[in-house]
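Minutes, project check-in

Agenda point 3 was the complex the collaborators sent over. CS summarized: two entities, 222 residues total, and the question is how they sit relative to each other. Sequences were read into the notes so everyone works from the same version.
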Amino acid sequence: DADVTQTPRNRITKTGKRIMLECSQTKGHDRMYWYRQDPGLGLRLIYYSFDVKDINKGEISDGYSVSRQAQAKFSLSLESAIPNQTALYFCATSPRPSYNTQYFGPGTRLTVL
Amino acid sequence: QKEVEQNSGPLSVPEGAIASLNCTYSDRVSQSFFWYRQYSGKSPELIMSIYSNGDKEDGRFTAQLNKASQYVSLLIRDSQPSDSATYLCAVIGDDKIIFGKGTRLHILP
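CS then shared the predicted structure for the full assembly.
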């Protein structure tokens, strides 16, 4: 079984819909991250969480929210999806210390029409 | 705005030759440096990390760090077709991680 899983793997939705992307990990890592990847723009950090009670905004948090339900689960929500949120979304985990090696999930391809 | 710069490529290298990938960063307090490989449609995977000036070798891969000049490079010796991928440079400083946009490497058979 994969150590970092993401659901769904692909999603097509319409403008204005609420979307939740879920991430689960069995690596036992404290730290979890959400990134988006766009062609020509690389990987950009949306939110990160160093433990269940510690959530921080990344480079591009506007339009997104997160929930760390447990050490192993970190969800990303788009409250009202817009077309420029069409991207490939990755969840990642890392052990302490800060950031260290990041282990990425398989990604979720989201299309907002 | 802290930045990590990479040439987007594609960088074409004959099979068996040395591929050289470069990355520059703007934040002088950066402390940790990583190279990730990403195959098309897949997630990034770590191939090298380096924390101090100089060279670090792991198999066919060598990472080089020069903090004074603010650059980090990755050398791939005896390049193989399976090395064809996008290589992402990541830099950590001031408790922030920033990824470069990646360099596409194409190994010519």
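Noted in discussion: Chain B touches chain A at residues 8, 32, 34, 36, 42-46, 49, 88, 90, 92, 95, 97-102 (CB under 8 Å).
Follow-up: revisit at the next meeting once the mutant set is ready.
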